[in-house]
Automatic annotation (TrEMBL):
Principal EC category: transferase
Protein known as: Protein arginine N-methyltransferase
Gene3D superfamilies documented for this protein: Hnrnp arginine n-methyltransferase1, Vaccinia Virus protein VP39
GO cellular component: cytosol; nucleus
Record localization: Cytoplasm, Cytosol; Nucleus
Domain Protein arginine N-methyltransferase: 176-346, 523-682
GO terms, molecular function: histone H4R3 methyltransferase activity; protein-arginine omega-N monomethyltransferase activity
Annotated catalysed reactions: L-arginyl-[protein] + S-adenosyl-L-methionine = N(omega)-methyl-L-arginyl-[protein] + S-adenosyl-L-homocysteine + H(+)
Keywords annotated in UniProt: Chromatin regulator, Cytoplasm, Differentiation, Methyltransferase, Nucleus, Repeat, S-adenosyl-L-methionine, Transcription, Transcription regulation, Transferase
EC numbers on record: 2.1.1.321
Example of a GO biological process term: methylation
This protein's record includes keyword Lipoprotein: no
SUPFAM superfamilies: S-adenosyl-L-methionine-dependent methyltransferases
Amino acid sequence: MKTFCGRANPTTGAMEWLEEDENYDYHQEIARSRYADMLHDKDRNTKYYQGIRAAVSRVKERGEKAIVLDIGTGTGLLSMMAASAGADFCYAIEVFKPMANAAVKIVEKNGFRDKIKVINKHSTEVTVGPDGDMQCRANILVTELFDTELIGEGALPTYEHAHKYLVQEGCEAVPHRATVYVQLVESKRMWSWNKLFPVHVEAEDGEKMIVSPSEMENCPGVPSVCDIQLNQMPSSDFTILSDVVTMFSVDFSKPVRSASTYYRVQLEPIKSGKAQIVLSWWDIDMDPSGMISCTMAPYWVKSTSAFQWRDHWMQCVYFLPNEEPVLQGEKVYLTACRDQYSVWYKLEKARGEEENKADVHVESPVCRCQAHLLWNRPRFGELNDQNRTQQYVKSLMKVLKTDSVCLCISDGSLLPVLAHYLGAKQVFTLENSALSCSVMEKCMHPARIDLYYPANHLEDKIKIIEARPELLTSSHLEDKKISVLVGEPFFTTSLLPWHNLYFWYARTAVTSHLTSNVTVLPQSASLHMMIVEFQDLWRIRSPCGTCEGFDVQTMDDMINNSLNFRESKEAEPHPLWEYPCKSLSDPQKVLTFDFRKTVPQHCLSTEGSVNLLRKGKSHGAVLWMEYHLAADISVNTGLMQISNEKGNCEWNPHCKQAVYFFSSVIESETLSDLPSAVTYAINFDTKTGEIAMDFKLL
């Protein structure tokens, strides 16, 4: 059997469906899973174990047999905890077949074969009765079905079904309850992930401005949660407008309702400002008394030194549909609406009691402007980065002449408008989808005319072409030759930094439409690399061995086997501003790509070594791209600076960097210890647009 997997092809900029071995899909699923991260989450595991022990003893004290239902068992860890805490029998449910097979092996290896039955089904398909999957209903319900948003993995419908069909009334539940907390903040940085700010351009003939169309201004955006490591957001990047309040809680030991509903709280702002963002997180109590608790609260709320890092549960950023001015001490109502899988918020001024009881519409917000469908949140942040825009403005001013005919190749970029404002005679922009064409049209003539914002009416000066580069014809270009070819470059299908090299392939495809002395901006790009030690990110790829005294080696082997399923290990994208690391080597330029020439037929490869300058654990290499726009002007997608002698790194916050984890981590406590250097071999295959790499620690 074969399976089809979607992968972006960096040479065409398109998603392609590749036929893969039937095992590929689940190898990817396992290799990129967060199982290791959960097994390393000491706080979570300890609290679950304490909660399970307490629940088993409460049932035993009542003189009953302890029958456990563990939904989403994964490695079988929670069932093994229950069995060793004295449970009489455990039903461990796991829908993902490779995982269920691993759980069977792990349970056997730890000697619980007679106490735990692994059931490879969705919990809603489990049957109860003499001939069923379960002999009888359980009286202890144990689950770990939560994501950062709490309900995004379907916890509510799963609990609802379990209470109806799989557990006894009045059962014990671990966790016993979850509570969701919220805090209102103002944050230009976070708000820039959701709205397009005005862009100021100093041109020859005065200041110009790109403004977002009113449709975009007033769009509520997309309902999907923005989950981030809020602990990496410095307090200078947001202003707290309210105390932390409890939004809602769910008692898992009683029947749960998953139907759409809403919750409303009254807030009294502690500071005046613009309410833009609702920050949210949850905690879970493992026992009814709330003595055993696990919290996701960020650093400014939870003043504890024992900070548990985790990547499977983070914190949520919700964008209000519009920014609302609030005054200190003047009450407002915050409403949380939810369906089975997601939550969204709105804020209203407090009016008469009766008025506020009026209907709350629970429909989920829908993006009407299409920009939120085209640009993800980091992309909004990138477009709003004035310093970055300034680099493009400076370099365009250097290369544009009054007779310049300009072609822009990037997805949903503001470059065509910048090029027009800075004096190009004619601008064409090549868009790869109807969606990006539509958004670009809106940006070029927003239906908003007032004194302060003369609208960007540009439809005759900028022509949008929806065509693939290789299908571009002279008639698209009105028989003109292109004298300036520009790109950021940015493409929505790019996953890894070098996937934006699609610009080079597009440049090669349109060669016949370029003048012989064409200016290409950026003129070239380079790939950079550095060896780092991660503060915490290493955990997601680190073997666990034993967890709370149970042998989970089988899981380590399974993850390792999946990581090695491809001949060469692959780099993976991570937004490193969220994951602190320190540099162990200097950054090194390893490959250069010259956009003034077409893509060569042969591969580009390089070998070399990089010296380790600091002691530490070499967890892996980080790779990123730099684009050289014009003489002395470049845009960097990776390392912004090494901020101190300890080697702490600051990363571009709008881009994901590529991380290649080393399979064996070598610690050098002092510089005289080995390793002293890392050798690398990096190969850019021009046929596939992919980069293969290999590292050895000397």
